[in-house]
Amino acid sequence: MRRLAALFALICLAAPLQAQDAEQATPSGQEVPRFVSLKFDVANGRSGPSRAHPVAWRYVRAGLPMEVIAETPDWRRVRDPDGEVTWMHRSILSGRRTVITTADTSLRARADEDAPAEAIAEAGVILALERCRTGWCRLEGQGYRGWARADALWGVYANERGDARTDENDGSPALSGPVARDTALP
Fold it and tell me: What's the pTM?
């Protein structure tokens, strides 16, 4: 009887820990929020997490960065660079990180404002993100590679931009875009 009582007590103590782990885990096992990109030239953003929900947005740009803000096992709730929120099937999203320039942006030879410019990316150009450090990001696109100021990009978080204040949302990564208008709500 003592062994049974000890086993019961052990199960009761472990259950809250398992429930806590389950609450923090996502269906994909990856953290949310996170940035991803579109795999295909044409992708539908839906008003809910199923093919039965109507198409809210049709995206026609492979590589467009999107921010995953919630997920189910097969669907991801994403925010686009314009702040629109839709649902997308996981199969049309890639874990490859990209960014979009918010203004004409110089790609420099080094992460330094005085470094020579290797190229100029016009506003709206999608570039592959290699890495960020101290407010600069190493990017590649159309045969050019260089460093750009992170604050001229959508698709990077406050800590990657070098923002001193990241406590505005309790330490969670901050979105570097406009306030979202949720298309999934009536």
Answer: 0.75
